[in-house]
Amino acid sequence: MGTADAASKDVTVRLAERKPIVVFVLGGPGSGKGTQCANIVQHFGYTHLSAGDLLRAECNSGSENGTMIQNMMNEGKIVPSEVTIELLQKAMLESGNNKFLIDGFPRNEENRAAFEAVTKIEPEFVLFFNCPQEEMERRILNRNQGREDDNIETIRKRFKVFEESSLPVIEYYKARGKVREIDAAKSIEEVFDALKVIFTTTVGKVVTT
Ligand SMILES: Nc1ncnc2c1ncn2[C@@H]1O[C@H](COP(=O)(O)OP(=O)(O)O)[C@@H](O)[C@H]1O
Ligand SMILES: Nc1ccn([C@@H]2O[C@H](COP(=O)(O)OP(=O)(O)O)[C@@H](O)[C@H]2O)c(=O)n1
Ligand SMILES: [Mg+2]
């Protein structure tokens, strides 16, 4: 085993010892995932890990993968799983917490299968922020976070990737009874009210058989 493999194994083992509780937060670009994750963190003690934010930070850190990541993000493409999973695992360990909202991941079948194979972590459940495309487009164009990929041309590419690659992941979890769907077109307050119900009734419930 090479040193890189050994290090990654070590991270995986140390993470597993913590018995992490993971909720995947999925939905199209601009559906409000990041906004609501911040709310959930405040009320329910989760650590929020946005795959997109971690990838942007990796670009800004001047890492050797930086240019590749930036080019892919500017095209709305999904970065190879090994890169994103390593960032997620590192952030999970460093947080010291064991409850995580993983936002914007898994975004395709490769993400999903690789995360499961590497970490052996099954999500508690999967939140799906369902929002019409026109509304998501409006929100992104008003987001003003200075993101290079928030331009109309890249936004359209991201919508296509969402439909072709990310929706099948949501279907995968739907078939396994794991999806909690939210009407994300509602106001920020109304969406959070719906999330509060989900988090107070589903999480940490003891299942007796
Ligand atoms: N329910 C909502 N109604 C209107 N605007 C919203 C709502 N939720 C989020 N926004 C705004 O829409 C933009 C995109 O939200 P964000 O949380 O970044 O979405 P995502 O992480 O899914 O791309 C932000 O400017 C945010 O303030
Ligand atoms: N699992 C992921 C998540 C994001 N990304 C990249 O990061 C970009 C921005 O993701 P994001 O989650 O910050 O975007 P929003 O859904 O918040 O608009 C995506 O369009 C992809 O290029 C990825 O490659 N793999
Ligand atoms: Mg986001």
UniProtKB/TrEMBL annotation:
Keyword list (alphabetical) reads: ATP-binding, Cytoplasm, Hydrolase, Kinase, Nucleotide-binding, Nucleus, Pyrimidine biosynthesis, Transferase
Q: Which reaction does it catalyse?
A: UMP + ATP = UDP + ADP; CMP + ATP = CDP + ADP; dCMP + ATP = dCDP + ADP
Cofactor names from the entry are: Mg(2+)
Q: What is its EC number?
A: 2.7.4.14
List the PROSITE patterns: ADENYLATE_KINASE
A Pfam family annotated for this UniProt entry: ADK
Residues holding CMP: N111
Q: Which GO terms describe its biological process?
A: 'de novo' pyrimidine nucleobase biosynthetic process; CDP biosynthetic process; UDP biosynthetic process
- Output the superkingdom of the source species: Eukaryota
| Localization terms from the record | Cytoplasm; Nucleus
- Free-text remark on how the cofactor is bound: Binds 1 Mg(2+) ion per monomer.
Q: Which family does it belong to?
A: Belongs to the adenylate kinase family. UMP-CMP kinase subfamily.
Domain remark in the UniProt entry: Consists of three domains, a large central CORE domain and two small peripheral domains, NMPbind and LID, which undergo movements during catalysis. The LID domain closes over the site of phosphoryl transfer upon ATP binding. Assembling and dissambling the active center during each catalytic cycle provides an effective means to prevent ATP hydrolysis.
Note the subunit structure: Monomer.
Q: What is this protein called?
A: UMP-CMP kinase
- Name the source organism: Theobroma cacao
